[in-house]
Amino acid sequence: MSEELHDHDRGLSFDLPTLQRRKMIRLLAGVGLVPLVGCSSDDSDSSASSSAGSSSSAASSGSAECETIPGETAGPYPGDGSNGVNVLKESGVVRKDITSSFGTASGKAEGVPLTVTLTVVDAASGCDTPKEGAAVYLWHCDRDGNYSLYSEGVTEENYLRGVQETDAKGQVTFTSIFPACYTGRWPHIHLEVYGSLEDATNATSITATSQLALPKDVCDTVYATDGYDRSVQNMGRLSLETDNIFSDGYDQQLATTKGSVEKGYTATLTVPV
């Protein structure tokens, strides 16, 4: 992987419309012009401590309301037909394990195992009602910071991309690998929520587009392992507060992440829509 800056999320010039919209909504809410809804849980005012390589818990906003997950750019490598190739219409994209390519491709993404569980809930219900029968399309870069279908050397691969239908609890689970930290972006995972599996596989009617952030202590531990060398350098130049996507707030997007390098990690996040 080269050191040059990836096109996606190239800073304010790329993401200014999204960032300005979010900040304006928050500004108006502050003066009582726009009602905000947020998501809360019993432990919303606390975060679990962690030791290196063991576990980390995301910070929480402590809000007593339910706020829809912030909308973010899908970047230039979505694979949903909005920028070239459309993997969503390919047979085999509906799957839990996204570490390997499917169809005519045979590549496999190597790295520290990561299981991602997202719980999609109805924000209008106060986050109390799971969105059963919705669908989530999830994708992210590999250990080298490359995106399948787009990056040089992996344009024929489609690994680290997949769709799942939410169950009665509103949950989807993906088996994957820990993504890299590439130049200019905090370690993250992209997601799109659809009203149904049919909508997702037809790449129509996106309900929400956002990004999941991974906690620093876990990233530091993973990036100290073989294969993630470049990520160590890139992490040293970044913080959640300076990342051009998460700098305006990341409480709702920072995943609760637990596990170890030896056994793999789990990342969980509630996604109000």
What's the short story on this structure?
The protein is 14% helix and 22% strand. The chain is globular. With 273 residues, the protein is α+β, with helices and mostly antiparallel strands.
Strand element count: 10
The rounded distance between the terminal residues' Cα atoms is: 35 Å
Average pLDDT, all residues: 83
- Which H/E pattern describes the elements? HEEEEEEEHEHHEE
Q: Residue ranges: pLDDT <50 for 5 or more in a row?
A: 1-64
Strand content: 15-25%
Total helices: the number is 4
Shape from CA axes? Answer: globular
Helix proportion range: 10-25%
Descriptive account of the structure:
The relative contact order is 0.21. This protein is 14% helix and 22% strand. The chain is globular. The strands form two sheets. Strands 1, 2, 3, 6, 9 and 10 form a six-stranded mixed beta sheet that branches. A four-stranded antiparallel beta sheet has the order 5-4-7-8. A hairpin with a 6-residue loop joins strand 2 (113-122) and strand 3. Mean pLDDT is 83; it is low at 1-64. The chain contains four helices and ten strands; from the N terminus they run H-E-E-E-E-E-E-E-H-E-H-H-E-E.
